[in-house]
Amino acid sequence: SFSARPQMASFVLLAVTVGAMLRTADDLRPRWWLAPMCGLWACVHGLWFVGIGLQVVLILGLLLDRRLDRRSGIRLGLLVLASLVAVAVTPNGIYELTHPLGESLGIADYINEYQAPSINSPRYGVTVAMFGFVAATWARRGKVTWVEITMLAFAALFAVQVVRTVIVGVIVLTPFFAAALQSWLPRATDRGPGARERALVYGGAVAALVALACTVPFTASELNPRKYPAAFDSRLDDLPVTTVLLDELADGGYLALRHPDLRIVGDGLSDQYSVDWLAGWFGLLEVDPGWDDFLARTGATRALLYEDSPLSVVLTLDGWTVEWTENDRTLLRAPAG
User: Fold this and answer.
1) How far apart are CA 102 and CA 46, in angstroms?
2) Secondary structure element (H or E) that encloses residue 321, with its range
3) Are the CB atoms for 57 and 154 separated by under 8 Å?
4) Angle of helix 48-64 relative to helix 146-159, nearest 10 degrees?
5) What are the tens digits of pLDDT across the range 232-262?
6) What Cα–Cα distance (Å) separates residue 77 from each residue in 96, 176, 259?
């Protein structure tokens, strides 16, 4: 889930929200700044509703713990309402409230991130182990609040849904995991972290920044020819601007950035395309029944595909001409007419 996409903003803002909810659980004071933050969040990425969901879960936990009086309950409820209003007045308006994820779920069958996570994945296995560790620690402690239970259940709900939301569950889980881990460790002092712990934390942060400073200039300036079709840039530059290029999903972002005047069939920013168009494009790439009808609909006269893909083979047999092949991709030209 960690990649240069808007969802990174959701992960950061979710961590901020979790911290705010835990503080509110202690003092019952609403953090009113969460409302405008939800509005900003809604302008950046579709997971804004997780922050409001956490507010509702906290209220439920406090009610079950019988810690919420009438005044505090009204104030926390008004914060939820204010957060919804802040989302509703964004440029997408009411649509944002009813379609937080856009139309992405309509193509979930074609997106790996929307598939159910597998316990065979090491990363998911670690996630399950973290939940188990927290549960075992709470069982050892013997006393658990409803706030803790409801927030952990909220985290588990997201962690088991789809691959893309495992990280959402982990972010909510992390403070409870850290507290559980601390409870098993000997406490040298109750006055806070000692000099050795501070040196470890700050030293690790400095080392990470130095490593980034040394590596980013190189990784940002060099393209992996196996990952991006940079070898075809000069040939694509020579194509008329009216050319429609049939492209792979993995290449769409690069082509949109490097060749903005080229009319590509699609890219990874799925919300800017209709579900019908995306389903047709993915079906075409997989040579599903009706693929040729959608191909005609696109008007594509060039195709940049993986050389060994089923569609590349089928188009070659159907009369498309190979113009250039390099690395693992091939550029095809449609037959005249």
Assistant:
1) 7
2) strand 321-326
3) yes
4) 150
5) 999 999 999 889 999 999 899 999 999 998 9
6) 21, 25, 49
